[in-house]
Write a sequence for this structure.
């Protein structure tokens, strides 16, 4: 995989799955500015399809989406060989122990709570890219 | 009109006009949802305003989203109306 983004000078391929257009734009601009190649999916179904098609190095996945949640997307991603070990960073407004524990049980790699702190987001992404497939 | 915080990154600052246009559309959706007592749509948009406002360094808008969410949860029609008006004023074009 292309590790490290800005750190290594190489581009990582990152898929952003979020049904909020504002967040997609924000994440796209911020992560592109760090040298990453960004793919955008505007909903959960599109996200599952894009993950299979693009085989990204990392997936940024929103929790609250319709018609299926980010948790459901995560389950499906983990059942497919091409995304079974891809690092997944979940975006969630629900910073509760239950939500976080459930996400880890289902195979999420890490999570970050909204509103997004851009510095923290970039740090987490850099860490996950260095760590590589789980 | 609302101003972002001073420490906003340049690349985010460039996104603010489009973001505010989207919020103006949200205001129309909020008015329609309030007229229909559609609390699901009201809560969804309030939640998004709260999160997106803060992520775009617009704390005032985030606070209004939070207030709207509280009014929606309480099914407080006057609070909902006042919060929608406040959001509308906040993102009004100069």
């Amino acid at each position: 995989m292309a590790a490290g983004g800005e750190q290594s000078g190489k581009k990582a391929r990152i898929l952003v799955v979020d049904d909020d257009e504002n967040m997609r734009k924000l994440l796209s601009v911020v992560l592109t500015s760090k040298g990453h190649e960004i793919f955008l999916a505007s909903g959960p179904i599109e996200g599952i399809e894009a993950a299979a098609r693009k085989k990204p190095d990392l997936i940024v996945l929103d929790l609250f989406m319709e018609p299926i949640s980010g948790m459901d997307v995560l389950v499906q991603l983990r059942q497919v060989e091409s995304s079974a070990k891809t690092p997944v960073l979940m975006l969630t407004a629900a910073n509760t122990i239950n939500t976080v524990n459930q996400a880890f049980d289902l195979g999420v790699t890490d999570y970050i709570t909204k509103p997004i702190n851009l510095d923290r987001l970039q740090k987490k992404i850099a860490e996950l890219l260095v760590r590589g497939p789980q | 009109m609302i101003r972002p915080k001073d420490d906003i990154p340049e690349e985010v600052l460039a996104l603010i006009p489009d973001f505010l246009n989207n919020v103006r559309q949200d205001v129309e959706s909020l008015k329609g949802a309030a007229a229909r007592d559609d609390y699901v749509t009201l809560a969804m948009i309030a939640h998004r305003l709260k999160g997106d406002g803060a992520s775009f360094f617009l704390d005032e808008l985030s606070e209004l989203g939070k207030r709207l969410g509280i009014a929606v949860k309480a099914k407080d029609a006057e609070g909902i109306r006042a919060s929608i008006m406040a959001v509308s004023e906040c993102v009004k074009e100069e």
